[in-house]
Fold this sequence. Notes:
The chain is of the alpha+beta class. It is built from ten helices and 13 strands. The protein has two domains: 3-142, CATH 3.30.1330.10; 150-314, PurM-like C-terminal domain (Phosphoribosyl-aminoimidazole Synthetase, Chain A, domain 2, Alpha-Beta Complex), CATH 3.90.650. The strands form three sheets. Strands 8-10-7-11-9-12-13 form a seven-stranded mixed β-sheet.
Amino acid sequence: MKVRDIGEFGLITRLMGEETARDGVVVATGDDAAVVEVTTGLRAVFTCDCMVEDVHFLRSAAGYDVGYKLMASNISDIAAMGGRPRYAVVTLVVSPEESVAWLEDVYAGLKACAAQYGCHVVGGDTSRGQQAVLSVALLGEVWPGHEMRRSGAQVGDLVCVSGPLGASHAGLQVELKRVDLKSVYASQARRRHFRPVVPVDLAFALGKLGCRCANDISDGLVSEAREIARASRVGVELESALLPIAPEAQAIAQALAEKPEDYALYGGEEYALLFCLSPTLLGEVCARYPAVRVIGCVTAGEDVVLLRQGERERLNTAYTHFG
Length: 323
C-alpha cells in the first residue's frame, strides 16, 4: 500500500492511532495542537533534529531502526543539557509512492524509543516531497540552575564519558557491507548504530549533583571535545590509554585493518555523554554509574590534544554537515 492510496489523513490515523490523554498529555492528536502538563519548578528544554534519506540513512534500512535512532538523537540532546525528555512532535515529508508499511515501522521505532525514556509522541505534521525527511521536535525538562552547558568546563575538571566508544561507527561499517555480516560482532555493532542507549538517568543525575558541562557524542568524541574547548575557552587533554573502546569497534576495525582508536575518537552517532566533572564528584558518580570512565582532563589553552606514550598530538575535528 502506498501513501497515495490512503491520503494524508488516512496516513495520520494509521501512524498515530487514537491517542488518549495520559501521563501529562491533556490533549493529544486530533486538534490543532497538543496540550501537555509541565512539572512545577522545572524549566523547559527544547530541541529538534532531522534525518534525510541518503544523508543520514540508506533507503534499505529498516523503518523501525530509522525511527528509533531519530528519536534517540533528540533524547540525547536533551540529556546533554542535564534534562529528561517529555513530549515530542514529528514532521514527515515523503513521496506519495512511499510504502505505508515502512512508515508504520518508522513510527513504531519512534514510539518504542520514546516510551523507553518516558516520552510521548503527541502530534506532528506531514508534507509531500520526493526525498524522505523525518524531523522530531522534543520538549524536555531540567532543574533550574542545573543545566549542563558546553561553556561550563573549568581547568582541573576531569573529562569523562558515559561508557565504551566506537560501536556505532563499527555498526555503520556493517550497514555499508564493508565487513562479513556473519562476524560475531556484526549484529551487536549494527544494533548499537541504530538503537543507541542514551544515558538519560546519568545525565539528569549529573545536573543535580552539580556537573556544569556536557555534550552528547553525535559527531565524534574529538568534535564534541573541541566544541567544549571553544565554548569554555579551555584546553582538553585526552589520554589514549584511557579511551574505553567497545569490543565491537575493536573487532571490526581490526577486520578492516583500521585503528580501533580512530573509531572511538572520530566515530559519530554514539549518543554517549561527554562531560567535565569536578574531581570531588567522581567517587559518587562512579559508585552510582560504574560504566563512567575518566579519559582526560581540562587544561589551560584551547587545543584538544591526545597523550600517547608521553607524546602530545593535536587532534583535528571530524564530521560537519557542510564540510
